[in-house]
Amino acid sequence: MDFNEPAGTNPADRGTVLGKSTPRIDGPLKTSGHAPYAYERHDVAEDQLAGYPVFSAIARGRITRIDSAAAEAAPGVVAVIRSTDMDVLGKHGMNVVPHFGGDEIRHYHQAVALVVAESFEAARAASGLVRVAYDAEGHADYDLSTHRDTAMARKAEPDQDVGDFAAAFAEAPVTLDETYTTPCQTHAMMEPHASIAQWDEEGRLTVWSSTQMVNWLVEGLCSAFDLDPDQVRVDSPFIGGGFGSKLFMRADSVLAALGARATGRPVKVALPRPAIANNTTHRARTIQRIRIGADRDGRITAIAHDGLSHTQPGGDGENSTAQTPFFYAGANRLITPRLVDLHLPEAHAMRAPGEASGLMALEIAMDEMAEKLGMDPVEFRILNDTQVDPGQPDRPFSDRNFVTCLRQGADRFGWADRNTTPGGRREGMWLIGHGMAGAYRGALTMNSGALVRLRPDGTAVVETDMTDIGTGSYTIIAQTAAEMLGLGVDQVEVRLGDSRYPVSSGSGGQFGAPSSTAGVYAACVKLREEIARRLGNVDAGSLDFADGRVTASGRSTSLAEIAADGEITAEDKVAFGEFQDDVLMATFAAHFVELAVHAGTGETRVRRMLAVCDAGRILNPLSARSQVIGGMVMGLGAALMEELAIDTGRGFFANHDLAGYEVPVHADIASQEVVFLDTLDPASTPLKAKGVGELGLCGIAAAVANAHYNATGLRIRDYPLTLDKVLEELPAI
Amino acid sequence: MREFSFERAGDAGQAATLAAGDTGAKFIAGGTNLLDLMKLEIETPSRLIDVTGTGLDRIEQTDAGGLRIGAMVRNTDLAADDRIRRDYGVLTRALVAGASGQLRNMATSGGNLLQRTRCPYFYDTNMACNKRSPGAGCAALDSGGFTRPLGVIGISDHCIATHPSDMAVAMRLLDAQVETLDAAGNSRSIPLEEFYLLPGDTPERETVLEPGEIITAVTLPAPIGGHQAYHKVRDRASYAFALVSVALVRQADGSGRVALGGVAPQPWRRAAADAELPNGAGAVMARLLDGARPTAQNAFKITLAERTLAAMLAEAEGN
Ligand SMILES: Cc1cc2nc3c(=O)[nH]c(=O)nc-3n(C[C@H](O)[C@H](O)[C@H](O)COP(=O)(O)OP(=O)(O)OC[C@H]3O[C@@H](n4cnc5c(N)ncnc54)[C@H](O)[C@@H]3O)c2cc1C
Ligand code: SF4
């Protein structure tokens, strides 16, 4: 199905199942421990061996020798695979640094060998016996702040230079010029990267893995092992979180495949938690200079955002300016995303790449600007709302209800009642503050395919290589098919994550929910057409599907009767047309936060959070809420605690386990409220839906930071807002 | 994890006898620290002696009017004990500020005292660490090292790690004594003040325990009353080790005691600092942290300790 114009009314609008809060259909499997996660798939292949990697002890240089004799002789060991025994293996186009092969070390904890043994314990014990000698490269500078001069423009995004920023900024009566920094972050998903690999006699490879994008892993494995796509099968039905860390091939699948090839037996490999922060990808650090000029009424006349981040040579880093060309009005704009090569581990996508970091800065800047103008920050944002691309005013937003988010949020939160004097409200030992921020996240769509089977018993099966990374894909796909075929959710079986199924959008960039359901919609439309044909070439548009039956010109037939002679299948794919480039598609939110800062110690406790979200049709309010509150928790972590600590002498992340890298725990989260506006975006997909998985994270950290300022009167522009940054300036006790 | 043998001891004497003369032997209690370290091959015992069946799991009254806490009493049970909650409130508060419910169900009094440092480089076996491999160097102290969580006082040029226990800070405040037994049947009672060694040039030696000597109990003197509080400061609300923790007993006349966690290789307390308590937090910390040698990353701990105590005193006065 070509989606070449905004959607009109269609069967998905009925809203009998879609749009209704629906518990996860895979919930019982998960809560009873029966959902098969990659590392525990003991039943898929017999005689599995365990592989345990050896990771580089240096950040940069060459391997001069790998002595594996002692490991090979250790009990239970079947094979040791050394990086130096082979050329650099191919990687996926999205990866920056190769995963294995050769003698070059490009980052700390790069995999340099794999020990394969009869048990996990034997492999791990023997991995400690592998001796690796290095020729380390001398000291490098790992501090982003010293590199601004060597910064390059980004490949992916050109600068935005509209009007005359310099002149407008110089003339503006009210201006702001501040610099903000965000640290490196790690995804810290629950399930580590894990794969089981097996080769058959014909040289075909099967990998049971944990990946967000099945097809990209197929492509990556083809590149690493010189295979054709039809020689590779990837199966990834359940994923214990990814947040971008599992978008592309990672060392686990490559090592498992190498181990299996060397031993002729299936091999499983999981990346140990302490190796994940340095071996895999992370969100890059950013340094962002923001300048805003406004007239006295608060109208923005000039805005500039310079966003610096870092990458291994060849990568993209973090574009913290992503939202700034589009979020607020202003005729004169200068947006300059910049990048430097830094030999830290590979920086890459982490949940809401770009906007998550960018809004951490921009939305503090907006708060500071509102204060300079003497305006309510909500009103300041409303005044500078835009319904068109400010740099290209003939390009409208497809559906933008940011102002409604702001107004509703302020009402519900009781924003008007807050104390507006920073540091002016104290309850005992606690300083109380309120803050808000806006959120913007682009609404990408990706072509997505699916196959629908109508079984002789009148129930349906959906197959697509779409993944459920904990987001609820199983359920919204079942809802989509149920809506389209007039079935109950329990009459739809959903099969995901297998490369034998049609290629889908996969999960990432919050495009998964809208895109994959659109693909299922397309396949269902095709199935409806086939049913229409079988009912005597009636007009498919006139069919009414309800309660397991289809009615055509007054005649009702059960789906079971229609499929009585054998399963009916229909496969299709949604292809999003170029018309989408003529509009701006995005999601919006307004976040409100109340918190308390301990006047003595500077500890921060968030008390209350509210998000009002505008993201088109909400397919399943229950799982959408779960996505948004999860994002808010992550944003709270970004605001208050999350930071990969760089050892600037050696060039690696020193706090590389979950004891050292702190994410919020239950005690950090108090009340969370989420409201979805009842909106539809016909330009986005046939279901008029957009994603929410990343929206909840965007802006929240700045809302926390602004509330922290309101509580303490101290403006921190360097995340995370740990207590050491305010201690010296807190009031006397 | 290396191969090891596993035996169960029926009483403390048998445990000490089994361990005698075997440098590869280690006692295992709750295992919440030792097993983690074995998986990473930071601890590599060849023999484990399970001491959980030694019957040392009771809390009894002592003749001196205090309590004798068996080395196997679980942290959860200790924190919940009525007598501890009533008379040694600071200990309950310190215990529940540590780890998680599940871990406290396993962790024992003896094992808690002997848990090892949380220095990130101690945990990363690629890195030089004098505590792990004496003489190897200290990666934390190298240029560019990450030292924010590490110690500011009592440290040396060879190691700046802290002792991570919360329980031990409260026990130090309460003048606890550690009771031990060796294979020859000799028992000792060691004041907690003398139990932990400072790193000096042998950071691998952390306590005065001799090889094979088993902790049988921790005794608390008679209750001292007063307002008892424990404030643990960290970057998140729970389930993290202390940046700084402050244990306080304050009597109605303003006198009292102060001990710190998160700043030193042992629970940190000085008599001269206690004496300053009537003069306020600044006066206490001037004595308690006199001679501190923080790094640029962890110098905030000095201010934090003082402000935390000041807030606690303000709250105590409010009561
Ligand atoms: C995730 C995590 C978070 C934690 N957070 C905190 C925290 O916030 N605050 C805190 O204080 N602690 C914390 N801990 C540490 C925890 O308190 C300790 O692991 C626990 O107290 C150790 O007790 P155990 O009985 O399990 O000791 P084990 O692991 O069994 O033993 C520890 C050591 O003591 C020795 N040993 C044990 N018993 C005896 C004995 N009777 N005589 C002689 N030697 C003995 C062992 O040989 C070993 O060397 C945390 C631990 C984990 C894993
Ligand atoms: S501070 Fe101590 S524990 Fe940490 S690396 Fe140095 S010697 Fe090892």
From TrEMBL, chain A:
Q: Where is the Aldehyde oxidase/xanthine dehydrogenase a/b hammerhead domain?
A: 32-138
Q: Which InterPro entries does the record associate with it?
A: Ald_Oxase/Xan_DH_a/b, Ald_Oxase/Xan_DH_a/b_sf, Ald_Oxase/xanthine_DH-like, AldOxase/xan_DH_MoCoBD1, AldOxase/xan_DH_MoCoBD2, AldOxase/xan_DH_Mopterin-bd_sf, PaoC-like
- Looking at the UniProt entry, the stretches that span the membrane are none
Spell out the residue ranges making up region: Disordered.
1-31
Report any Pfam family annotated for this entry: MoCoBD_1
Write out the GO MF terms. iron ion binding; oxidoreductase activity
Q: Name the domain of life this protein comes from.
A: Bacteria
Under which name does UniProt file this protein?
Xanthine dehydrogenase YagR molybdenum-binding subunit
Organism lineage = Bacteria, Pseudomonadati, Pseudomonadota, Alphaproteobacteria, Rhodobacterales
From TrEMBL, chain B:
Task: Pinpoint the FAD-binding PCMH-type domain residues.
Answer: 1-225
Q: Does the keyword Flavoprotein apply?
A: yes
Q: Where is the signal peptide?
A: none
Tell me one Pfam family matched here: FAD_binding_5
Task: Give the molecular function GO annotations.
Answer: FAD binding; oxidoreductase activity
Key words, A-Z: FAD, Flavoprotein
Q: What PANTHER family does this protein map onto? A: ALDEHYDE OXIDOREDUCTASE FAD-BINDING SUBUNIT PAOB, XANTHINE DEHYDROGENASE SUBUNIT C-RELATED
**Record's protein name:** Xanthine dehydrogenase YagS FAD-binding subunit
| Natural source organism | Paracoccus isoporae
